[in-house]
């Protein structure tokens, strides 16, 4: 019996979602939650000079402040991404700002980059020692004028110089007014150029929205290649609601099961355009090992999970990795390289 789904989740889901999130963070941070790891050479990869024991990472937004960096490997994650961190500490949007859609296995959030600010989070990263590759996701502070955004991204990146393994430029959250306008190619170029001033050797990822038109995805894929970025993370949450059976009429970004198709469509488009020349991290709607396998066969090198993890509980990564191994066995795949892009 799955104790999480039978007992813990029904109790936790009676609580306010943000309070439940807070309790979950406390549980992770206690260091007591520990899942038997799946260690299998077929799941391991060396990418961008980093070792990943398995391809499943924690998506940005769960550990926004980097408070549990030392513990994510204990839950079976192959890597973790903290943030979004902004230069200025900020409280985020008024509550309530996180909503469950249990029938759709989805969430809607309009958190608005609540975080302790770059200085404090960088201090925490410095004091931690992650056992797995660590990404740092940065965004624009709410009060910063969009015209000054590139300079602010540079300042935030500088706070994390030599910290973590890769940096993510987040221009795709729907909950900071004007942020997604920074997905315009000229703006992306400006931000990347600025960040590189202070962090010339940084591994840089761009995190994109699933709501971009195909032509925009093509243009941003081309630009990412031209700028020699390390990769793209596809995707963030969506403001679309057409895929919901019942729309709760809450503003914010939709994640989880209803996002999967859109996120996979964006990943496919980017993978076809970049043809293996960029690292791709697939995120959006992963619930099962089959979903992980699908994203890898659509060209992802790594994947990330958030909403599925909330619904799935502490053993989520283990289950996904075991299922992934089953699927690889069926296809006689010796490693993830052998199946990557098979559906393109
Ligand atoms: C409550 C919540 C907060 C999030 N906060 C961030 C964030 O701060 N930065 C970011 O890049 N993505 C954030 N995300 C988006 C996730 O990282 C991920 O891209 C998205 O939820 C799709 O994955 P999923 O369907 O597995 O949840 C957040 C998602 C949720 C549900």
Structural class: alpha/beta
Q: Can you list the ligands bound to this structure? A: flavin mononucleotide
Query: SSE order, as H and E?
Result: HHEEEEEEHEHEHEHEEHEHEHH
Identify the strand order in the major beta sheet.
Answer: 3-4-7-8-9-10-12-13
What's the CATH first level? Alpha Beta
Cα-atom radius of gyration: 19 Å
Can you tell me the number of structural domains?
A: 1
Note the beta-strand portion: 15-25%
Describe the structure.
By secondary structure, the chain is α/β, with parallel strands linked by helices. The chain is 34% helix and 16% strand. It has one domain (3-338): TIM Barrel (Alpha-Beta Barrel). It is built from ten helices and 13 strands. The strands form three sheets. Strands 3-4-7-8-9-10-12-13 form an eight-stranded parallel barrel, surrounded by five helices. The chain has a three-stranded antiparallel β-sheet with strand order 5-6-11, with no helix packed on it. A hairpin with a 2-residue loop joins β1 and β2 (50-52). α4 (149-159) runs parallel beside α5 (185-198) and α6 crosses α7. The longest helix has 15 residues, at 260-274. It is globular and about 55 Å long. The model has no long low-confidence stretch (mean pLDDT 97). Bound molecules: flavin mononucleotide. Residues 59-61, 64, 83-84, 98, 107, 109, 111, 113, 137, 170, 173, 207, 236-237, 255-256, 259, 283-286, 305-308 line the site of flavin mononucleotide (FMN).
